[in-house]
Design goal:
Elements: E1 15-23, H1 27-39, H2 46-54, E2 71-72, E3 75-81, E4 85-92, E5 95-105, E6 111-120, H3 123-135, H4 138-157, H5 162-167
Antiparallel strand pairs: 1-6, 2-3, 3-4, 4-5, 5-6
Length: 169
């Protein structure tokens, strides 16, 4: 795969926020659901079009979302530790950013899925963009929507035989 990879350590990007959701599923089921949701980022015309309009380094889906170096519009997979961590990074004209998903099994048997955002918004344009995305809570709505989609998919697939799950994807 030949595409630009962001050469910035995730931890060097400033912390923006972190959101969590509890899911009644196993870590493996949550991982599978997360991968399917992330791969869905590239479906339809709006994500590639928006990523091109913003000048994102990644504008198309390539590879499988659980493989380092794979892309979905706006992101490249930079860490993948099944079934614990999936990190996506991206950059465009106004920002460099990371979305890090963590999957933690709780003693109760539930799984805690976290989504941490780190980003920098250089220059005046970056400051304006941050206001539009973070200041309006649009980012919070989008992130929580991703978490709810993963929960819905994981809980729906819970307990289904693997052959049936694969057919219903």
């Amino acid at each position: 795969m030949q595409h630009p990879i962001i050469d910035v350590p995730i931890e060097s990007l400033p912390f923006v926020d972190e959101h969590f959701i509890e899911i009644a599923a196993t870590p493996e089921e949550v991982w599978e659901a997360l991968i399917q949701v992330v791969e869905g980022f590239g479906e339809g015309r709006s994500a590639p079009s928006l990523s091109r309009a913003l000048g994102c380094a990644q504008t198309e889906s390539e590879g499988h979302a659980q493989e380092i170096g794979s892309t979905v519009p706006g992101f490249v997979v930079t860490r993948s530790v099944r079934p614990a961590v999936l990190a996506l990074m991206g950059q465009h004209r106004f920002s460099r950013y990371a979305l890090i998903f963590s999957i933690i099994e709780k003693p109760s048997g539930l799984v805690l899925l976290g989504a941490q955002t780190r980003a920098e918004f250089p220059g005046r344009r970056g400051t304006v963009y941050r206001g539009l995305v973070i200041g309006t809570r649009g980012h919070v709505l989008a992130t929580n929507g991703i978490l709810r989609s993963v929960r819905k998919r994981a809980e729906r697939e819970r307990g289904r035989p693997k052959a049936a799950s694969a057919q219903n994807r």
